[in-house]
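Section 5.1 Outputs to date
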Amino acid sequence: MVDWSSLSIPVAYLGVLVGSLVTFSYLYRRRKAAKAASLAPWFPSHLQRNIYLSLLHHEQTNPETGKPVQVPNSVIKAALLRRAMEDINRIIQMRNAKQALATLLQRGSVGDDLWQRFQRAEKELEAELEDVVHEANALAPNWGQHIFQSANEMAANARLRARVEEIQAKAEPEREWWNKRREFLRAEFMKELDEEKAASTKAEKEISTDKASTPAIATKTPSVTGSTGSEEDGVWVEEGGPTSPQMPVTATTAGGGGKKKKKGKK
């Protein structure tokens, strides 16, 4: 026979162990869910979704007829397109931030709370996209397959217009700055030209003043032919007596003094 009294202790132990594990798991998941709910959302409130839901469930009666006034279908479609545009912008932001956030998480630069916020935002966005597709198919058949393509084109056009407006807003201040810069450069250039012109005028005046103050020096060239002819005149001397023949003697200039020497035989 089976001794149930001896088996009661292990069974009780297993029951207490399983109960404690279940209790711990329940408390852990509840605390984790409460912590995740207390985290701040990744994106702010979805304004376009709230507008769409307000128009879709709009309830107002006509005071004259007493019938409910329905919002036109075109207005609801436009609101749904705006909602899809906002979803496209959020998808782009999350794609750009996911790789950087994963790298920072691996390096330990950010905590797990931020990663949990990001994962919760991804799940909320997936649910939002599915909801938009269902709403589009409810408004028009097979519209859910093309609504995000149209929303993507509209979002790209909106970004382009925002960029153009930003550039146009900066154009006027940049034009004023360039006009001031151009006037400043022109003034500096004209100033340099005036300084160069004044310097050249001053140099010309100094040169003319120096020429006027310097006296004229006249160079005189002596007549070489006349002096040579006068100094080389022949001199007649008598030698040996009155019967000796007369010999001419040529006078030469020595030392520039003009002295004449006589030569003869004795």
